[in-house]
Amino acid sequence: MRPGRRAVSDSGGAETPGPWRQGGGSQHSIAHHPSSAPRRLHSAGWWEVSPDAFGTWAVAQHPDASSSEHLGPAMLTIKLPQIFRVHQVPRIFWEDGIMSGYRHPKSSALDCVLSSFQMTNETVNIWTHFLPTWYFVWRFLVLSSSLDFCQEPYHWPLLIYLLLVCLYPFASSCAHTFSSMSARARHICYFCDYGALSLYSLGCAFAYGAYTMPDHWVSGVLHHYFVPVAAFNSFVCTSLSCYSRFPELEHPRLSKVLRTAAFVYPFLYDNIPLFCRLLFCFWSNCAWNEAMAGYCYHLLFALLTGFLFASHLPERLAPGRFDYIGHSHQLFHICAVLGTHFQLEAILCDVCSRRAWLQGRLPAPGLPGTFGTAGLAFLGNAAIIGAFTAALPRVPGSFVSPPSVPSEAGRSREL
User: Fold this and answer.
1) DSSP for residue 26
2) Whether residue 18 has pLDDT greater than 50
3) How far apart are CA 206 and CA 102, in angstroms?
4) How many CB atoms lie within 10 A of CB 362?
5) Helices and strands (H and E) in the chain: how many
6) In angstroms, how far is the first alpha carbon of the chain from the final one?
7) What does the alpha-carbon distance between residue 391 and residue 215 come to, in Å, rounded to a whole number?
8) What is the mean pLDDT of residues 173-180?
9) pTM of the model
């Protein structure tokens, strides 16, 4: 067989082995050679293979094949991974320092789901937030069996925090999964991702305001307005981060600055009680407990998360070397999840150790101040996402044509 051909064989001996298909008691292997032309195999039964423009290879049994051997169904459709280099996809899909591993920019929803099981430059991004989602769900279910979230108002801020902790990695995983359906879908996916992160920052404010506030700030002015201001900040964060996608092509640096500021600002605000509590603890030589250690680990990973998000290291130093494993967004996801884990454990320590002291100085949380505020914040952020989605036709790159599949000559040059 000449090199540069792709064929399907029912013998599996002469061809380079590939993925196996079962059919009627016999196995059929796919030899992975780049070609767009069908190939005949002189055996008891042979197959023809032809590609379409989106990487789907139709495999059909030839009518002249021997009818004495059962070769399975008359037509099979095999999805093979088709990966593009950076200049083969529209610019709106480009990532700094990532030179290959791009999915087709007009993928179907099923293709996007299947791509999570193929090695692309998004695969690790998907799984580094999808798997932690179920870890946080498991933690929530375990806590639900020991804490009374329905009848105990003291635990309502914790409940809101836990729900939003489960939401943000799931939204991020979905955004990375379905962002290759189209340029418009990419914007919408990340709008939802930004909204989930904004709500997570509000969840942090609920937990910090209820359980982490420094002793001498409890019942003070800042404590009274802490959560309402955090809800307003979530609107600012979502609006600014969504808007940052509009100048992304013409002014990428401005876009990056806006998006970074959109998340740094609520982080700094939410952690004001934590910063002050840590400083007061250092100055007064207070007892060091598990909660304080957890908050320190949380801040360490939060700083690493911000650094990786802004720097695009290490792929900026060696473009193309970290396309699939090890680029900054994957490390960013891992640091974010670890930071959230330590934050959750520290908050749980405060929930238990400070309960008697806090309940003696604060009224029980009410429905309007907890679920009412969280519900309004959710609806407000959804409305902001809807408004930016409606404005998408004005975003450069929102409507693009899919790239052409490289020709035979082009593939040969790449190989």
Assistant:
1) E
2) no
3) 39
4) 15
5) 12, 6
6) 18
7) 46
8) 97
9) 0.78
Nearest to 255 by CA among 96, 48, 414, 49: 96
> Residue 31 in contact with residue 39, Cβ under 8 Å?
no
Alpha carbons 179 and 105: distance in angstroms, whole number: 8
Write the DSSP symbol of residue 102: B
What's the rounded Cα separation, in Å, for the pair 153 and 374?
15
pLDDT digits (tens, 9 = 90+) for 30-45: 333 333 333 333 333 3
pLDDT at 6: 39
Q: Between helices 221-243 and 252-270, what is the axis angle to 10°?
A: 160
Residue 278: count other Cβ atoms within 10 Å of its Cβ.
17
Please answer whether residues 403 and 183 qualify as being in contact, where contact means their C-beta atoms are separated by less than 8 angstroms. no
Q: Which two tokens stand for residue 252?
A: 């990428």
pLDDT at 395: 56
**Is 146's pLDDT higher than 80?**
yes
Give residue for tokens 């593939």.
411
Backbone φ and ψ of 398, nearest 5° = -70, -30
Helix axes 252-270, 290-311, angle to 10 degrees: 170
Q: Which of 139, 138, 101 is nearest to 120 (CA)?
A: 101
How far is C-alpha 265 from the geometric centre of its chain's CA atoms?
A: 21
